[in-house]
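Example record used in the benchmark description.
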Amino acid sequence: MYVVAVTEQTGDTETEAYALAPLLGLSAYDVRLRLSSVLPRIVFSSADRDAALKVLAGIRARGLGAVACDTSTMNRPGDLTKVHRFTWDAEALTANGPGSPVLPWDDIAVVVIVQARQDVLREKKEIDMEFHGRRAERVEKIETHHETTLELSAYLFRRKGDDEQARPPWILHEREAQYLALGPRMQAVRRTNFNVTIGLVREHARQALFDDRFVKSPINTTDFVHVIGSDEPRTFIAPRGVEVQATLLALWLERSRGGPYRGA
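Model output (structure tokens):
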């Protein structure tokens, strides 16, 4: 599937919405909603590459920033290197202790921080007593509550290899990572440990571009997690839509300096 995303605009949203509506095959209202949200936002998708490139050219002709990519060429979840029980030194980040993949700091091109919002349905069993005359009966009831969880993830997009092919990014999930390597800087709160770790990444990968626009404007996921009792929600696995948004942003950031994630 080919997708086209608007990445930057300088003109009036209302004017652009009416101008782009015929090109995108959407109502001006729908275009305005998308352009009013944090960018990049996908405004067109098609299995037809030529159709996507035509839309891309039309958007750029209006002076808007835009990128296009083929989502079928993106990495599958199993291709991503997860930063779990990490360690680091002056030269590189190690994903999961001795013998695991190593990422030199100089190989990090873009760091994108994403906050994803996920719905949780919590189910609890309660025991109640029902009285029938003089007889009491224990009755099991199930109560459900709707909750919302937020989790941060960091995508570490790498520079191209010698074969000029983009390489799968590394990803650090706030709740999945262990922070023992922080030593005396490790705190009891995972969010704090995540932020400290990102600070270390930025300190060592000084040439990398950094963007956290999706922290203040979380990406809504379509996943719905079912939790029993007082259990914690399962470790968050970022759905495909979150990865696409992060990749589109990396494409745009690198395009401005001619880097490895230059888009169409």
